[in-house]
Amino acid sequence: MAIFRPGERHRYHNILKKRKSKRGVTAVLSLTAMVDMFTVLVIFLLQNYSATGEILYIPKEVTLPKANRVNELKPSVVVTVSTKEILIDRTPIVSFEQVKSLAPDNWTIPELRDQVRVLLLKAKADQEAKLQNKIKNVVDQTLGNEEVDPNAWRKVTLQADKSIDYLTLKKVMYSVYEAGGGPINFAVAKDSEKNNATTETQTQ
Amino acid sequence: MAHIDTGGKGGRNKSVEPNLVPFIDLMSVLITFLLISAVWTQVSMIQLGASFASPRNEDQTEIKPPPLEDVVLRLDIIDAGYRLLLGKETKMIPKTADGYDKESLLAHLARAKQMYPDKANVKMQISDQIQYEHVVAAMDIGLKAGFAPELLTGDVK
Fold first, then answer.
1. What pLDDT does residue A41 have?
2. In 3-state terms, chain A is what percent helix, strand and coil (to 5)?
3. Taking CB atoms and an 8 Å cutoff, what residues of chain A touch B131?
4. What number is the ipTM of this complex?
5. Is A80 helix (H, G, I), strand (E, B) or coil?
6. What is the radius of gyration, based on Cα positions, of chain A?
7. CA–CA separation, B9 and B24 (whole Å)
8. Which residue of A has its CA nearest to B128?
């Protein structure tokens, strides 16, 4: 390889040749590739962006099952069933062994039922306070927003590990219903590998 | 480098370069914000139909039965596979080497939907030891075929 004398150098060789001319040499940085990369990155991140802002806390030991036909998450009381314990909104309530040790025909978990009842009453009070905000209701009606479901406070989201047996789930669901909760929705991971068309299936 | 060649009457070409610096600034801020607020696991939910102990609305005095309630459509999930009860017909869908035969179940449910388009729900009776994963998979197939899943209580005999 040739050895060059140190000094001003330009990547365009033909300009380099004109170095001795009186015109100045401007070194330019090619930004096109970087701008391309940024654009692709922004598009990808915007696609992944969750606009609803409803995020569930998933403990490490919980792996959610996958499903295609899913609806958007709505704010509700979240009951998590992991292989270690049962939690309500991050607070451990009862251990998994305790639930397992209940007789197969005894489906009520008293601790869970009482805690869910307390949280549901709180949710009900919150919702009633919101409904009393008449100005907001009038604005919502003018804007054509949907009316708030008066029973929205009852909703409970069940988030369970995929290896949990159905008997344990039945016990948890029964306790939630005993506390006055329901309908229960199951949290699932959206399966994007297959056809992920979201349905507007109306369940009754 | 991005530039617009304007030609020029003289021998030399004039080139106008758009200023990319504000664009890159904007992109950097946007990427940082989106990366911070990115959610990598998309959690959604499956809505359950009327279930075994669904609470009734106190204001609702009249209980309307869903359409075609007299037509039996029940799916049993047992260790050996799926068992679909449609009217008086019982169809056993055994497990394959890959586990539960979801494709066959979807085909059978789609056929049931063709026979009874107004039927809106499928009742599911599930063995106690069945894993939650299989319950959700069956509910998902039910929804795909156009039926809202309803869970029944009691163990399958």
1. 92
2. 40, 15, 45
3. 162-166
4. 0.72
5. strand
6. 29
7. 33
8. A167
